[in-house]
Write a structure and sequence with these properties.
The chain is an alpha+beta fold and 429 residues long. The protein has eleven helices and 18 strands. It binds 2-acetamido-2-deoxy-beta-D-glucopyranose (11 copies). This is LicD/FKTN/FKRP nucleotidyltransferase domain-containing protein.
Length: 429
């Protein structure tokens, strides 16, 4: 299984030069988008069922896959249209800040069931993503300081970072809090404020080459906003961030910043120079934190001293990690470890193993670079009436697991996800 994975990856790597040229000529922006997802929830569910039917010939599987990717693309378009209308009124640049065609192209290309060995291990989508409704929930038990427009900027950054990682052929997948998020919410944890990715440490140089580097030795000097932006350096409401209009691509503004935390763990923060500075730091928010991991042939682990932000990171067998497959992160699809629970357990301190049942809020305010004055820890169950939580169902006959997200206030299914669940899973979280 692992061998196939590596092969698949290297073939993908060889092909991607051609990708680059053919894509540059087909950059078309058919904005403003019209949303036309005519399929019902049941129809999407049926497509997913077929996708995992081992009796279905590969050629039919591929056409089902294409349909799902098409639906996904419609959802992304709706997300972008909604967000631009809500957060960047009258700003047509907003639509061009994300190259959806290129993003979808790379995700599809990397996970397309090209042959029998690439039959999907997991797949699903947010059937309907309503930015304002879904991301406006603020609950007095676990409050957030992320508005729906902040959320949009997090996702906008993520889409662009994913695109660049694929373009640069860097292997990446979700880790830490974001992994908890896709497991429990099919999204960033509603009260969390950042996105964490793992890359092999051997890809560090590629990361540094793929984004413009910000000189981190001159920490005391604030980064000058790039010439034509009107980004403020205080902590403004994100809805007031203006995007400059003269750039061909939002990508050009992304920078990488090398960071060493108190555990001496090195990570790389990727953010846009259009975003506001974080209090007393030289980086900006929103940001994506990229953590390099070490590996031998069979395991991955953290270094130095196995320190990881969430605690000591144990060895994690690659067979529990691979094949890396797509998971739902709000309107996005992001490569994730095969066995989410084992991945999390490998990097969570002892005593926090009940993280599947306990929800913790206000652990760190990334946008203010501020430790918590108070941390909240409540049984997740208490939040089920407020926030959407994933429900997991296992079919013993087919060994398939089906996950579904319901938004309590709407009493409506929002996302659906299906995967091969060979491992012994608990039914709920
Ligand atoms: C399936 O496709 C991948 C990627 O093109 C390739 O590396 C692998 O060898 C193929 N496997 C089989 C069984 O054909
Ligand atoms: C996905 O990739 C495959 C293989 O390159 C391609 O044939 C197919 O058209 C793509 N599907 C979509 C929806 O872009
Ligand atoms: C957007 O355009 C409308 C109609 O032209 C106008 O009334 C509104 O003030 C504009 N909003 C902003 C933020 O410029
Ligand atoms: C959520 O509530 C907290 C505490 O009441 C407040 O500080 C924060 O600004 C609110 N966030 C949003 C996005 O409304
Ligand atoms: C970073 O800044 C320091 C001090 O200003 C300087 O010595 C160093 O050469 C700079 N490094 C890069 C890569 O620009
Ligand atoms: C800033 O904008 C001006 C005029 O719009 C343009 O000529 C210049 O190249 C831009 N500078 C940068 C750094 O993008
Ligand atoms: C842009 O940068 C150039 C060179 O650093 C500077 O001369 C110019 O005044 C800047 N333009 C604006 C609009 O800030
Ligand atoms: C990789 O490291 C793990 C943990 O130390 C060890 O059990 C395993 O044998 C190592 N594998 C190889 C191929 O060195
Ligand atoms: C910024 O940092 C200063 C000093 O650490 C602190 O007093 C202030 O409260 C911080 N501001 C915010 C918004 O967190
Ligand atoms: C499990 O899947 C089979 C085949 O799709 C289906 O007939 C059966 O009803 C499912 N069982 C449950 C409990 O959903
Ligand atoms: C939600 O939907 C279910 C089934 O459709 C129904 O039984 C239940 O009463 C609904 N709950 C609310 C609060 O509308």
């Amino acid at each position: 299984m692992m061998l196939f994975c590596l092969c698949a990856l290297s073939i993908f790597l060889q092909q991607s030069n051609q990708v680059e040229t053919s894509l540059s000529t087909q950059r078309s922006h058919d904005f403003p988008y019209s949303y036309s997802n005519s399929l019902t929830y049941d129809e999407v569910k049926s497509l997913l069922d077929q996708l995992f039917d081992s009796e279905i010939p590969l050629v039919d599987l591929q056409s089902i896959w294409n349909k799902i990717i098409e639906i996904w693309k419609q959802i992304l378009k709706k997300f972008l249209r909604d967000a631009c209308e809500l957060c960047h009124e009258n700003d047509s640049y907003c639509y061009e800040s994300i190259d959806l065609n290129r993003y979808v192209y790379y995700i599809n290309e990397s996970f397309y069931p090209i042959n029998e060995s690439k039959r999907p291990v997991g797949m699903g989508i947010y059937y309907y993503f309503d930015l304002k409704t879904l991301r406006s929930v603020n609950n007095s038990i676990l409050p957030t300081d992320v508005s729906y427009c902040d959320y949009f900027h997090m996702m906008q950054l993520m889409i662009n970072v994913q695109t660049i990682l694929h373009q640069a052929q860097i292997k990446y997948f979700l880790t830490k809090g974001t992994l908890i998020g896709v497991l429990r919410h099919h999204d960033v944890i509603p009260w969390d404020t950042d996105i964490d990715l793992f890359i092999p440490s051997s890809a560090t140089q590629k990361i540094l080459n793929s984004f413009r580097q910000v000189n981190s030795t001159s920490v005391k000097t604030p980064i000058k906003p790039s010439n034509n932006t009107t980004t403020t350096t205080t902590t403004p409401k994100s809805t007031t961030i203006r995007m400059s209009k003269d750039r061909a691509s939002f990508h050009n503004d992304l920078v990488v910043y090398r960071f060493k935390n108190i555990h001496r763990v090195t990570s790389y923060k990727i953010f846009s120079l259009r975003s506001p500075l974080v209090n007393k730091t030289n980086y900006r928010w929103p940001k994506i934190d990229i953590f390099p991991y070490e590996e031998n042939k069979t395991h991955i682990y953290a270094y130095p001293k196995h320190q990881h932000n969430l605690g000591t990171m144990n060895y994690l067998a690659k067979s529990d990690l691979e094949p890396i497959y797509l998971r739902i992160l709000g309107p996005l699809l992001v490569p994730s470890p095969r066995h989410l629970r084992l991945s999390l357990k490998a990097m969570i301190k002892l005593g926090r193993s009940n993280l599947f049942y306990a929800c913790e809020g206000n652990t760190f305010l990334h946008r203010y670079n501020r430790g918590p004055t108070e941390t909240w820890r409540v049984p997740c169950k208490e939040l089920h009436r407020t926030y959407p939580f994933v429900q997991n169902e296992r079919n013993l006959t087919t060994s398939l697991c089906f996950e579904e997200l319901k938004f309590p206030q709407l009493n409506q299914s929002l996302s659906l996800y299906q995967y091969r669940c060979a491992e012994d899973l608990r039914r709920t979280l």
